[in-house]
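Troubleshooting entry. The earlier prediction with NAP gave an output that would not parse, so I re-checked the input for stray whitespace and re-submitted. Clean input:
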Amino acid sequence: MQYQSLADDLPSVSRLSLGSWNTFSRCSSEQLEALLARAFERGINLLDVGYYWDKPDTEDAVAAALRGLAAPRDSYTIAQKLWLWDYPEHSFAEQLGRSLQRLGSDHVDIVMVSRPTADLALEPFIGEVVALVEAGMARAWGVTNFTPEQLRDTLALVNQRNWPHPVLLQVQYNVMRRGVVEGPGYAELFAEGAIRLCAANMLEGGILAGHLERDRVNPPEFAEGKRPVHRNICRDSGGIRELIRERQPRLREIARDFGASPAQLALAFGLSHPHLGTALVGVTEPDHVDENVAALALLDCATEIRAAVDELAIEGVAHPKLFNPHNGI
Ligand SMILES: NC(=O)c1ccc[n+]([C@@H]2O[C@H](COP(=O)([O-])OP(=O)(O)OC[C@H]3O[C@@H](n4cnc5c(N)ncnc54)[C@H](OP(=O)(O)O)[C@@H]3O)[C@@H](O)[C@H]2O)c1
């Protein structure tokens, strides 16, 4: 495993990490323990966790598995998401407090805040997140899906206030869906060393690995009882998912040239981003942990891989809208 230091007072995090949305909740408690045991054996030390609208038991499941494994608290790190669904009526301290209770811990390692809506003033918003770090509820903080402009304003604010800097930007990034991360706004911020990337959706919810039938079920349809094939996957910003499905067989062919599976090649692409902090992948099977960790070995030919998959990039990738299950988007 390779590790990346994000902040002085935070343990270095594994370059490949585990997401949890719609994966951990599909495992039995025994399967989840076996999955986490395998991930830890392979050197993965970051779990990205959240209170999910369609899988609200995920944090409890993670806590039970970690207890079952008797994993020492300093042997792994947790990145925890903060949503805006009930904000500002309920503060971030309340939201994180509830998650900590479910996780059975007194702190998370990185708290990741969703981007603010236009009506929220930035200073009190960021101030509330920084206060969680100052209170010891989180050791560091990061942002999810901020626009480049919001991130730039945030960095100016923390510099002005002498607040701790955000350490990660979580945003979708994969071999076909790359335009937002590689577009001018973020590209400049990464080049300045302002933040590190937490790549998410690297397999497009499994489609890039060959699960072509997977698709999104939105909160209103979910509330009416519609269930996804295998698992739910994220929204299709920019409407490029059909094209992604069409191009997956070509990814498989290119992967074969590198002696890799399509999942491994897609992961090698995300893992090779020059300003990566960590890359998240959702997994339910221990053998897929092995397969995915083996993608790190492909980084020896990262330049060749990036050149070979260039033809797969899809234009028209849009920045995701702010997600709120209460109003169905
Ligand atoms: N910030 C954002 O906008 C955003 C968007 C999307 C996701 N995320 C975060 O990123 C994390 C990861 O994303 P995700 O789980 O949605 O999607 P993902 O990582 O792109 O895909 C995960 C799926 O790929 C399949 N898979 C993994 N390794 C495989 C292998 N070696 N061979 C075959 N199939 C394999 C798994 O299928 P099985 O489940 O059947 O094993 C799994 O469900 C999530 O936990 C989420 O929190 C953030």
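This one parsed fine. The chain is about 35% helix and 15% strand.
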